[in-house]
């Protein structure tokens, strides 16, 4: 424990993988739940959401489908960058461990 607190040893790769899944799965779900609660609490957020819904309703079916596809791609790219960030950290820690062992 002392080595961890003095930064002589790094966070385990297993811990990084745990945080990856927390960020990839639990954070989006938490954000959806929190969004609904914040809309109930703050009138401005509820009004802006209503305005957005009104604009979305005025779109044609083709535009709605394009918008939904765009949002799915944005979400997937965010997940991809989240994954790449953790892969870089894990790769860095593996390189450090290999160099220490050599």
The ordered string of helix (H) and strand (E) elements is HHHH
SS field, number of helical segments: 4
> Average pLDDT value?
90
Low-confidence sequence ranges: none
Outline of the structure:
The chain has 102 residues and is mainly α.
Give a quick set of tags describing it.
102 residues; 88% helix; 0% strand; mainly alpha; 4 helices
Descriptive account of the structure:
- This protein is elongated.
- Helices cover 88% and strands 0% of the residues.
- α2 crosses α3 and α2 (13-41) runs antiparallel to α4 (61-101).
- It has one domain.
- The mean pLDDT is 90.
- The chain contains four helices and no strands.
- By secondary structure, the chain is mostly helical.
Summarize the helices and strands and which ones pair or pack.
Elements: H1 2-5, H2 13-41, H3 43-58, H4 61-101
Helix pairs in contact: 2-3, 2-4
């Amino acid at each position: 424990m002392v080595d961890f607190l003095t930064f002589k040893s790094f966070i385990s790769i297993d811990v990084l993988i745990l945080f990856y899944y927390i960020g990839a799965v639990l954070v989006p779900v938490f954000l959806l739940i929190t969004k609904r609660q914040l809309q109930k609490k703050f009138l401005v957020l509820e009004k802006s959401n209503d305005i957005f819904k009104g604009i979305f309703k005025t779109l044609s079916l083709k535009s709605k489908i394009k918008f939904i596809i765009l949002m799915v791609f944005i979400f997937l790219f965010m997940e991809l960058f989240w994954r790449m960030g953790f892969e870089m950290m894990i790769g860095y820690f593996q390189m450090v461990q290999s160099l220490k062992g050599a």
